[in-house]
Structure formats: C-alpha cells, structure tokens
Amino acid sequence: MDVRMSVQNLVDLPLFQGLDVEEISEVLSRVTVLVKRFRKSDYIFLAGDCVENLCIVVNGKVQMIKEDIWGDKSIIANLGAGSVFAESYLGRRHDKSIVSYFAASDSEVLMLPFGRFLENPHNSKAYNKLMCNIVAILADNNSRLIEKTEILCKKTLRGKILAYLEQEAANAGTKKFVVPFSRTDLANYLDADRSALTRELARMRDEGMIAFEKNTFEILKQ
Predict the structure, then answer these.
(1) Burial of residue 120 (number of CB atoms within 10 Å: 0-12, 13-18, 19+)
(2) pTM of the model
(3) Helix H or strand E segment including 216
C-alpha cells in the first residue's frame, strides 16, 4: 500500500483515532502495510492458518466463524467497517488461528504486522496514541465476546433472542433498530436452527413482544 495515497482514508478508523495524517504516515512508514480486497464469500483466514497481521475492516463486513467437521457454521462476531480482528495473535508470530474469518460482503481489509511495533517500540506521541487505541479496542472486543457469552448462556431460544435484541437496542439507543444479520446468519449467531428461529420470532410477534419487518426490529414489551 502507498501510505501517502491511502492514509487519508484511514483517519476515521478507531485504530487511528486521535492521530492526524502525518502521525499515521509516521507509524505506518515503519512497517509494510497491505490493503487486501476480498469478494463476498471469500475466506480471509481459515482455522489453522498462521496469522501474523492485525487486521482492520476498511470497507465491507467480515464474520468471525467457527465451523465443525460437518460444515455447520457458528458466527462468533459480525465485524463492520472500522472493526479490528485477529488481535489475539498480537506479537506472537506463526500462531495458528482457531477460528475462520469470512467476507460476508465485498470487503477491504488493512493488514498491519503489529508484532513488529511491539518488538521495536519507540517513544513518540504517534506511537503512544496508537498503543492506547489498541488497548481500548482489545477491551471493546472482549466486551463483545462477553455479550455473546451472555446470549449463549440463556437456556431457551426465546431467551437468546431477547438477550440479543436487548443488546442491539442498547447499542442503537432505541427500541427500534436494524440488525446486521439475515435470518440464516442470525440463526448461526444464536446457535439455533433457522426454522425454529423463524417460528419463535413469529410467536413473539403474535404475543405482542416484538414487531419486525425484514431486518428492522422493535421491542414492544419485555
């Protein structure tokens, strides 16, 4: 990637929050950075691949998934523009991923060999800002995984649906919101059968608990 040509597009990414164009150019000039384009349904990493880069979604949508030997897919996280992934392997070269990363739409991903920053730290404002952003992103990603665990801990499908919708409503700041999943992907995210999910959503609507039209949901009562 030509940093001077592309850096303006990176200013609004959470990884570079608080850094200006010159500061971003400074930190990226120390390593080789790539922007890779993936078509919808491409795999970015497969479970078992060695991961040596911190990855940032510049455009598009990426899913962190786990697949079993029969090919059944469970969505662990849905990652939109600005999201950081593969952060679990920071600073450890040749680690193998235990999950796969999948392009849920045409996507651009910035790949940053962040381990090299950790191996060769330097004292500058730009570097310190970047490290602070990384810590904040790690904390945020950890919180999202805890939210997913809270959903999966529910004993019933209805409980999982309600927990998920409550989280989405809280994130949106309103009881009417758009979810980022198709019905199939939502079933995979909730670790549920798609037909069972469709039936339970219909029951909840008939009972006046929720309203929905395609991906737009509204919580009516709890």
Answers:
(1) exposed
(2) 0.80
(3) strand 216-219
